[in-house]
Design goal:
This protein is about 80% helix and about 0% strand. With about 325 residues, it is mainly α. The chain folds into 2 domains: about 1-75, no CATH class; about 85-310, MetI-like fold, CATH 1.10.3720.10.
Amino acid sequence: MVRLILRRLALSVPLVLVVSMLVFVLEALTPGNAARSILGSGGTQAQYQALRRQLGLNQPLVVQYWHYIDKVFHGNFGSSLLTGQAVTTLLNQRLPVTLSLIILSTLLAAVAGILLGTISAVRGGVIGKIVDVLSMAGLALPSFWLGLVLVVLFAEDLRWFPATGYTALDVSVTAWLRSLVLPVIALGMAGIAGIAKTTRESMLDVLSRDFIRTLRAAGVPENSIIWKHALRNAAIPVLSITSLIFIGALSGTVFVETVFVLPGLGSLLVTAVNNHEIAEIEGVAIYFTLIVVAVNLIVDIAYGWLNPKVRTS
């Protein structure tokens, strides 16, 4: 297990480099640049060329990337070209918002999905068909569209929750939860469907095995068989899909944070792309990559707990 974790950490370094390089190249190929965004339509060609030289945008792309990545390895993510604020400060201010959103939406998806999937596997019949329908509907509905529907119903009509905005956890726990209820539901709905379907299929497979029949013959209570023995043996596929949903929620935050006007990394990325703020775009990409690495490490540790054979690999 220790060797596996160290190997994952070692692979994370080239992964970050590859991601940052791809993002840098793709941004360079995008029409427009930061100099044009800063000057706007009123800037002259001479001013534009002077600002490009000042920002180093006239240098070869390889040189620009080398200067950037050298700063990153020294802990400097650069500064915003429009505001002058340190990118690290911007990212750290917005990171709690995005983490709150994806962690809560994944917890919602996991708890609701496992419950629905397990009940569907045990009861079957109509409940199983309902889970299948919900799975298809949840996967088909775009999170940003669902977010708009939730705003209209629960914020505008019923006025149960705020339509937009975010309250920090250290300001008010209640207000923090209320500000995240609608975006968490919008982001987590597809995850509920996916986890429910995976749990149902995995539980049906486990419940058909010989050791389950042996437990029943030995008089072990049915609830203990289902929630203690069967669910643990069915957990590895469920854990895999849950980690994928967590990672997929990172891209979903770009749309959900925009709809609910949440000051997270996703909304920062949208603004940075519009303004060609390469340092901010790279910063968000690196933070997302590090989050993915951390999630994979946690999943590897959980695999070791669920399956002792993994610990020796």
